[in-house]
């Protein structure tokens, strides 16, 4: 059986990790490279880095911060934000990333998925999709709609239709980020996570809402995700006590979830 993965998520503004609730009211946490080094030493499995204002500010991703983070970690490192073409992807990979995350630009220009997969391999292209429960209606048969631009713009795309198309174009992993649950600590949106996992043949990553080890276990079992993104649990100032990676892996093991082992 493949082991499951814990992925720390960084929402970065001006080189610093921030934390929001439902994509709003970001509060400052720490310098991205400092937090990355700390979590790497705590044996996080992967790190994903989003330059969350790059797209809205119509600028390129903050490559200098990407480089500083990459210098401190030796685990898979996914980077997204402000990536508009294959040339931007190449610059991010040269800066130390191993995988590229695309979101808003993929909706605007789906061929960027195919172009990236052709140039760098499917395993390098991660589709991050922000989904919101809007109810079943014309054009949204799943009841979940895709949003872009930091969850501010509705696209009219059905979540399941979009992830299937993205897989066909070459996406190698799919992140399901629930806008409704983001930063709430109420648990992942299991219904849409499972529906996406049942709809595609590439790994699915649960994101948005984990507040306990049980929430993570639910996302990895009932939600059928191969990995879980966590952030608030690890470092949010809004949380009374942050957990360590070891504590979470031990708790998940006790819940019967096969995790990558802790190395003493």
Summarize the structure.
The protein is α/β, with parallel strands linked by helices and 264 residues long.
The ordered H/E elements are EEEHEHEHEHHEEEHEHEHEHH
Question: Radius of gyration, Cα only, in angstroms?
Answer: 17 Å
What is the averaged pLDDT score?
94
CATH topology description: TIM Barrel
Roughly how many Å apart are the termini?
23 Å
The proportion of residues in beta strands is 25-35%
> Percent helix among the residues?
25-40%
Enumerate the spans where pLDDT stays under 50 for 5 or more consecutive residues.
none
Structural class: alpha/beta
Give the CATH H-level superfamily.
Aldolase class I
Number of strands: 12
Which oligomerization state do the chains in this entry correspond to? single chain
Q: Numbering strands along the chain, what is their spatial order in the largest sheet?
A: 1-4-5-6-7-10-11-12
Shape: globular
CATH architecture descriptor name: Alpha-Beta Barrel
The largest sheet is: 8 strands, parallel, barrel
User: Under the CATH scheme, which class?
Assistant: Alpha Beta
- Please give the count of helices: 10
The tally of domains stands at: 1
Task: Outline the structure in words.
The radius of gyration is 17 Å and the shape is globular. The two termini are 23 Å apart. Helix 1 runs parallel beside helix 2 (63-70). Helix 8 links the parallel strand 11 and strand 12 (227-230). The protein is built from ten helices and twelve strands. It has 264 residues and is α/β, with parallel strands linked by helices. Strands 1-4-5-6-7-10-11-12 form an eight-stranded parallel β-barrel, surrounded by six helices. The chain has a single domain (5-254), classed as TIM Barrel, CATH 3.20.20. The protein has helices at residues 32-41, 63-70, 86-94, 104-108, 111-120, 159-169, 190-199, 213-220, 232-235, 245-254, and strands at 5-13, 16-21, 24-31, 46-51, 77-80, 99-102, 125-133, 144-148, 153-158, 173-178, 204-207, 227-230.
């Amino acid at each position: 059986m493949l082991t499951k993965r814990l992925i720390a998520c960084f929402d970065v503004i001006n080189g610093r990790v921030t934390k929001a609730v439902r994509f709003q009211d970001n509060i400052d946490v720490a310098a991205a490279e400092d937090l990355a080094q700390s979590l790497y030493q705590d044996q996080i499995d992967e790190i994903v880095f989003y330059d969350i204002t790059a797209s809205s500010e119509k600028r390129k991703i903050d490559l200098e911060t990407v480089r500083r983070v990459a210098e401190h970690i030796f685990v898979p490192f996914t980077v997204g934000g402000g990536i508009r073409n294959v040339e931007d992807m190449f610059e991010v990979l040269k800066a130390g990333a191993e995988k590229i995350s695309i979101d808003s630009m993929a909706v605007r220009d789906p061929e960027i998925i195919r172009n990236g997969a052709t140039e760098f391999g499917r395993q390098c292209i991660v589709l991050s999709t922000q989904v919101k429960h809007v109810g079943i209606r014309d054009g949204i048969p799943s009841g979940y709609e895709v949003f872009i631009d930091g969850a501010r713009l509705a696209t009219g795309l059905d979540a399941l239709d979009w992830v299937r198309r993205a897989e066909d174009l070459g996406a190698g992993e799919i992140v399901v980020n629930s806008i409704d649950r983001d930063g709430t600590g109420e648990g992942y949106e299991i219904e849409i996570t499972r529906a996406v996992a049942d709809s595609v043949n590439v790994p699915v990553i649960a994101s948005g809402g984990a507040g306990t080890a049980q929430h993570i276990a639910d996302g990895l079992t009932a939600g059928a995700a191969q990995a879980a993104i966590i952030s608030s649990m690890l470092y949010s100032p809004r949380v009374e006590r942050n957990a360590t990676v070891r504590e979470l892996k031990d708790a998940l093991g006790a819940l019967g979830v096969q995790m990558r082992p802790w190395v003493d």
